[in-house]
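Here is a protein:
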Amino acid sequence: MTAVDERRMTELFENLEVPEGIKIELLRGEIVMMAGPDLVHNLIIEEVLDQIPRRKWHRLQTQDIDILSETSEPQPDLVVLDRDATPDSGRLMPSAAVTMLVEVVSRTSVQRDYLLKRSIYAAGRVPVYLIIDPVMGQCVLLTEPAGSGDEADYAVQRITKFGDPVPLPLLDVDLATGEFGTLKGVRPHRLP
């Protein structure tokens, strides 16, 4: 895609009128639309929010992220950043200000969360990417981003089954996962 095409896509994305209940993201130059989240998804996010201390961390939902060097404006399920590192305003949060991004896998987001966003968030140098997967009953913690563009990835991956704690040393939290629900009737996958 040329620079002109990328600017035009970003402009179209920013001016798109989205029906209520639909979430959109710009991921590597493509506009992706999704239906609203499942109840299991929302309850998992609530559990995570309750465990991250509000005094030290902002825990934001519906926050668009500016991934430098990418034609991407993802809207993760949860954005965690140090209260001292927060910009004063703006629609786009610079990825450099973010400590952790969380995505909860849905019936239709498996490939996007495990592959595409993993690469995009690593390219944006987001220190911690946590994938919570109610399809497989597991959490995948990704740290140490490296590389650029499509080749960007996380050097360290840790898989934890629901019920076991997920250590989040950057946040000084051991995330309890025993209350995380699972999605019923969804075909298992083989990622990560």
